[in-house]
Design a protein that fits this description.
- The structure is a single chain.
- The protein is an alpha/beta fold.
- It contains 5 helices and 6 strands.
- The chain is globular, with a radius of gyration of 14 Å.
Length: about 160
């Protein structure tokens, strides 16, 4: 059994004159990351591995959430390939996960993240909002074999406030 925890980065700022890759979280994004982290802690979601896009907003979200799921930062995997808005690229990265990992938490971007959740999961989402979480389980032993899994839960910041 493989478990995929998809998390969209927190709300970021468009006001700074920086590259998209360098945009940072707004206060709301920081607060929502703490809110989601606390909720993950209460429902005992503990990933074996965390992967994050190298974009500043995704990495900031991942660092904040990791505090609550008892994950050491020196084990983080930063992947430039997760800085994508394409679901097929995102799914390709997920399928490359080594099979010793049972539970993968991944921080990435829309529209690729929402599309991947819809392709891989059993529940349809119009949009996974910023800092939204979708958890999908697959009845396989190899990540390369994942297809349609079961969406076991999802939670979005607005539903936790």
């Amino acid at each position: 059994m493989k478990r995929l925890i998809l998390i969209r980065h927190g709300k970021s700022s468009w006001e700074l004159n920086v590259r998209d890759h360098d945009r940072v979280l707004l206060e709301r994004g920081i607060n929502d990351a703490h809110l989601i982290g606390k909720h993950l802690e209460t429902v005992s979601v503990i990933p074996n591995e965390i992967w994050s896009s190298t974009a500043a907003r995704a990495l900031q979200t991942a660092i904040l959430v990791s505090e609550y799921v008892n994950y050491k930062l020196d084990r983080f995997k930063l992947k430039r390939e997760l800085y994508t808005f394409d679901s097929s690229e995102l799914i390709q990265q997920i399928k490359s996960c080594t099979n010793d990992i049972e539970s993968l938490m991944l921080f990435s971007h829309n529209h690729g993240l929402t599309d991947a959740a819809n392709i891989l999961g059993s529940q349809y989402f119009d949009n996974v909002p910023t800092t939204g979480v979708v958890i999908i389980e697959f009845p396989v032993d190899n990540w390369s074999q994942i297809k349609k899994g079961q969406t076991i839960t999802h939670f979005f910041p607005k539903n936790l406030k």
